[in-house]
Amino acid sequence: MKAEVEEKVDFSIIRYAQCWEDADILLEALDIQEGDVCVGIGSAGDNCFAKLIKNPKRVIAIDLNASQIACIELRAAAYRNLSYPEFLILLGSRTGDSRLKCYELCRGDLSPTVKEFWDNRKHLIEKGIGGLGKFENYFKLFREKLMPWVHSRKKIEALLAPKTQEQAVVFYDKKWDTIRWRFLFKIFFSRFVMGRLGRDPKFFSYVQGSVGDKILGRTRHALRNLPPHENPYLYWILNGRHGTALPLALREDSFHKIRQNLNRIEWHLGSIEQIFSKQGITVVNKFNLSDIFEYMSTEIMENLYELLLNSSTKGTRFAYWNMLAPRSVPEKFKHRIHSHTSKGQELLLKDKAFFYSAFILEEVL
Fold it and tell me: Among residues of the chain, what percentage have pLDDT more than 70?
């Protein structure tokens, strides 16, 4: 049986060439132990690879999109075959003119289908594979077409310069938060524009209220209360690469730990329902569910949640985000779940990928 979103959304393109969810708060929430079996939504693979840092027994990455599986497989080959500087160059986190050479070093580890996928995109690899998704191109449009009308390059550099939290608040309130910033931000991140250029319109099927207002509120929190110079997601949005701060899976100490544990990760194309059936997955200790529940009706979410519960044991944790549509444990299963509401709210305040309105952490009783 196909997942609901699979019947509505075009999955023939790379939607996310990197993971736009903060693995630092994810790993703190999941509290992965050695011997755990972890399941995660694949995306570009970053947060599934990040789980390997904690030495779990098994990490299973699942995605409906064959293009996302190609991203994951190439990342795995990059962890295995590249030096750390080469790895960052291939991803686009750092500038460099040797990306095709880096790809050739990885190519021999790719399956025939994935090799063909990337061989047909060599001209894009030269730009850095972390910038090739629809969502990343949406931010590129924001960076190159909108921001020059809003703030100068000098002011952007000032935003990203190290500051105390008090200084960041003053800078945002006095210099950044202009009428033009608010107006153009809310238009660009509206349901219509984001659905047309960033995410698929069907991803907003269950969203109510103003999309732009909600994202602006979260952006205001991030720019005032989280150090902008330590935020790799913000830095990429404004510069098209990473600065000194990197997402967890891309940091040097993480790179070596992930490389050591690459034999513990696997990736599968299909829905969670399909893969659990095919692979005979019966017990999972930690779930990273991205924001998939937002794309489902409450009825479909309830059915999937039941499947997850049936594959869980006492202490199994579910971690997932709400961007715009509120989702949490269905009423009929609340007696089987402890919701770590305070912890989720605490982690959301630290979330450097600041688009989300809620971070949900639930544990099986």
Answer: 92
